[in-house]
Specification:
This protein has 210 residues and is mainly beta. The protein is built from three helices and twelve strands; from the N terminus they run βααβββββββαββββ. Helix content is 12%, strand content 46%. This is Late embryogenesis abundant protein LEA-2 subgroup domain-containing protein.
């Protein structure tokens, strides 16, 4: 799955400032999340830096869902429902001191009520300082008893005009503070999406997200 994903980093600071402050950043950087109270590091205990560094980066949700395209959403011969989504996600790192290593082992899924429609993973990459990165993530899945699910979706759309979805993601990251790399931690992201349709190959409008 990760081989098909695209990463489009957009540098929001000048190239001179970026290279001077973050020598490990690629031509285009990427995203930040920071846990409170982390002190372990590959290069020793950075506790002496806590007062200086941690207050500016409280843990935040750095992701936004920009668009959703459904490339497959149909019943198979055995009445299972096959789905494939292309999700565009923007990850932002406004901090000028912190870099983020997005590690392997991530998991992202889309749910309708209690049914997992599709799943996949985020790519592995490094996001530098003051950076915005656009990710195109492909998700796929198959659900049993597709007839019941389709009936529920149709009734939901007819009654309310929207279909509520839940996007869930778990992402292992390592925070980079100067030359220090903190211990690996997992961040969990939850996002509610209201869309107008789940029809394949149609323009899907996101009515609301939170």
């Amino acid at each position: 799955m990760a081989d098909h994903q695209k990463v489009h980093p957009l540098n929001t600071s000048s190239s001179h400032d970026h290279q001077r402050s973050d020598v490990e950043a690629p031509q285009a950087p990427t995203v930040p999340l920071v846990p409170r109270g982390s002190s372990k590091s590959d290069n020793g205990d950075p506790s002496s830096h806590d007062q200086q560094y941690y207050p500016p980066f409280q843990r935040t949700i750095p992701f936004s869902i920009d668009s959703l395209q459904i490339t497959r959403f149909n019943l198979s011969n055995n009445s299972s429902l096959s789905a494939a989504f292309d999700v565009t996600i923007t990850a932002r790192n406004p901090n000028k001191k912190v870099g983020i290593y997005y590690e392997g082992g991530s998991h992202i899924s889309v749910w309708y009520t209690g049914t997992n429609l599709c799943q996949g993973s985020l790519p592995k990459f490094y996001q530098g300082h003051r950076n915005t990165t656009v990710l195109n993530v492909l998700l796929s899945g198959q659900t049993n008893d597709g007839n019941t699910l389709l009936t529920s979706l149709q009734q939901q759309q007819q009654q309310t005009g929207i279909i509520p979805l839940n996007l869930r993601a778990t992402q292992p990251v390592r925070i980079k503070l100067g030359k220090l790399k903190l211990m690996k931690v997992k961040f969990r992201v939850r996002c509610k999406l209201d869309v107008d349709s789940l029809a394949a190959n149609n323009a899907i409008n996101i009515r609301n997200s939170s």
